[in-house]
């Protein structure tokens, strides 16, 4: 039984490390593209032309609806499975918006979100983060651990230690939720009784860069709160 868990954990770590390497390679390619575009722009200006490089990346691609914050966000309902995980049955839109979003669940598990994600490489926040930034992190395959002031201090400390060791996770206080401790991934959510609840590791094992991830391997670093 122990060897099976060890093998599963090793496989998850290997998968996450592979995602990290892919992310680093993509960032190197992006830097080369940006440098090349800059050289072209300068050359064009020297000869009197005007060359505009419009690099619309994942972090800046706003649709017309997203700019107004009026895009359809989410419709549907949670369905709870035998394992206690709630799965959103319905639509979770993925528009980039710059205004606040009225999510149908708290904490949100998907929907329209800010163009910039919240850092989620084992990042522990001591203050609340914005829903819109955190949802973008979920889109990248992160698990978001949230807790209220009713959570035991020992549980908060234990969860923080676990998150710090787990890439593609983030943790923050969140008062507007029904349970003291909640785990969220894109389209999925689970409440747990304590940090020692086996459901914590099971949720991380399944949903950190899990099959539900809309953008697997996308960056979980370099984000900001806006």
TrEMBL record:
The chain crosses the membrane at residues 32-53. Residues 1-10 have a biased composition (Polar residues). Keywords: Membrane, Transmembrane, Transmembrane helix. It comes from Streptomyces actuosus. Residues 14-27 have a biased composition (Basic and acidic residues). InterPro entries: DUF3105. This is DUF3105 domain-containing protein. Residues 1-27 are annotated as: Disordered. It holds the Pfam family DUF3105.
């Amino acid at each position: 039984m122990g060897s099976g868990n060890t093998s599963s954990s090793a496989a998850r770590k290997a998968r996450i490390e592979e995602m990290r390497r892919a992310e680093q390679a993509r960032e190197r390619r992006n830097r080369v593209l940006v440098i090349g575009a800059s050289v072209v722009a300068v050359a064009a200006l020297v000869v009197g032309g005007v060359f505009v490089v419009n690099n619309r990346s994942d972090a800046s691609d706003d649709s017309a609806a997203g700019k107004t914050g009026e895009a359809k966000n989410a419709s549907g309902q949670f369905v709870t499975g035998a394992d206690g995980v709630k799965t959103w049955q319905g639509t979770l839109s993925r528009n980039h918006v710059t205004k606040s979003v009225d999510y149908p669940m708290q904490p949100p598990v998907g929907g329209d979100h800010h163009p910039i994600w919240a850092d989620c490489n084992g990042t522990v926040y001591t203050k609340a983060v914005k829903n819109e930034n955190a949802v973008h992190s979920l889109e990248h395959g992160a698990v978001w651990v949230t807790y209220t002031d009713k959570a035991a201090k020992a549980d908060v400390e234990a969860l923080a230690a676990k998150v710090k060791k787990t890439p593609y996770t983030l943790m923050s206080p969140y008062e507007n939720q029904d349970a003291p401790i909640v785990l969220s991934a894109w389209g999925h959510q689970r409440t747990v009784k304590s940090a020692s609840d086996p459901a914590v590791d099971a949720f991380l094992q399944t949903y950190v860069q899990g099959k539900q991830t809309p953008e697997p391997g996308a960056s979980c670093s370099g984000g900001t709160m806006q």
